[in-house]
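Supplementary Methods. Inverse-folding protocol.

Structures were first reduced to a discrete structure-token string of length 47. This string, shown here, constituted the complete conditioning input.
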């Protein structure tokens, strides 16, 4: 889920959901970490 920031010239500010940002960040880091070790699990690193 993408978070698109509001335009700077808007007068009404919406609160930022810090918890959602933190959860998304942790998930993205986990997926990227798993991608790094994919070659080990599939055996593609041998050769």
């Amino acid at each position: 889920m993408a978070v698109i920031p509001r335009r700077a010239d808007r007068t009404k500010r919406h609160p930022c959901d810090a918890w959602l940002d933190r959860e998304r960040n942790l998930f993205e880091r986990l997926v990227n970490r798993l991608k790094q070790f994919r070659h080990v699990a599939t055996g593609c690193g041998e050769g």
